[in-house]
Amino acid sequence: MKYLVFASVFFLTTLVYSQELMANQILDNAIKYHDPNNKWSTFKGDFTVVMTTPNNSDRTSEIKINLQQEFFSVNAHRDTVTTFYSIDKGICKMKYNGKVLDSIQAKDKNLSCERAELYKNYYTYLYGLPMKLKDPGTNLDNTVEKKSFKGKDYLVLKVSYDESVGSDVWYFYFNPRTYAMEIYQFYKTDKNGKVKFDSGEYILLSEEATVNDIKMPKIRAWYYNKDDKYLGTDTLINN
């Protein structure tokens, strides 16, 4: 009996350990696909993103990222308005139609350093995937799911985050042959940490643009999870 109990515990432990290795292996393979020369940690590059949304004019954002120098900037144009944010080693700068703003002027234009930080996190996260899934505070679930989405089969990894990082739960869909990331999806959680499946969005990734050896999605189309309503498309233009 003791032997059987021990064998059962050993089997379950081995199973969980194997699943963990499998999830980590898929992530590592995906990173090798998108960052074959291990360049993300020292990424320095600039690119343009055109955001197209229903019933709005396009917004064109010129983005510069230098991870080693701790620099980020985004210069966005829509209609006759241009807004500029930069964070250089923690120092924030803002401009409106080319004019440098102080904190009071920025508030009048609905600009803030908090928004600059939000943009920095947004662009470095989404265009740094899947490499960013190795960041501290990121919790990769041990289980690998096999799912079919819109007629295609995927290997799916579930990711949650430490409370200090974020409360959303994300799912990342990888091509089972190439390990290219083709979809990501997130859900909100309630106060108890339970996933709210009528919340959040999914993002379909298509085509690729290589920016300083990093394979990034060229086109990202955003939809609501609850009703598949189309929200908009981001198109990356390699400068």
Question: Main sheet: which strands, in order across?
Answer: 6-5-4-3-2-1-13-12-11-10-9-8-7
Strand content: over 45%
Distance between the termini: 67 Å
Largest sheet: 13 strands, antiparallel
Global structural class:
alpha+beta
Task: Count the beta strands.
Answer: 13
Radius of gyration: 20 Å
- Compute the number of helices: 3
Q: What are the secondary-structure elements, in order, as H or E?
A: HEEEEEEHHEEEEEEE
- Measured as a percent range, the helix fraction is 10-25%
Low-confidence stretches: 1-21
Number of domains: 2
* Mean pLDDT over all positions: 91
Note the overall shape. globular
Protein name: DUF6503 family protein
InterPro entries: DUF6503 (IPR045444)
Organism: Winogradskyella vincentii
Signal peptide: 1-18
Architecture blueprint of SSEs:
Elements: H1 2-34, E1 44-52, E2 59-66, E3 71-78, E4 81-88, E5 91-96, E6 99-100, H2 103-108, H3 113-126, E7 138-149, E8 152-161, E9 169-174, E10 181-189, E11 195-211, E12 214-224, E13 230-238
Antiparallel strand pairs: 1-2, 1-13, 2-3, 3-4, 4-5, 5-6, 7-8, 8-9, 9-10, 10-11, 11-12, 12-13
Description:
- It is globular, with a radius of gyration of 20 Å.
- It folds into 2 domains: 1-37 and 135-239, no CATH class; 44-127, no CATH class.
- The longest helix has 33 residues, at 2-34.
- The chain has helices at residues 2-34, 103-108, 113-126; strands at residues 44-52, 59-66, 71-78, 81-88, 91-96, 99-100, 138-149, 152-161, 169-174, 181-189, 195-211, 214-224, 230-238.
- The protein has a 13-stranded antiparallel β-sheet with strand order 6-5-4-3-2-1-13-12-11-10-9-8-7, with helices on one face.
- The chain is of the alpha+beta class.
- 19% of the residues are buried.
- It contains 3 helices and 13 strands.
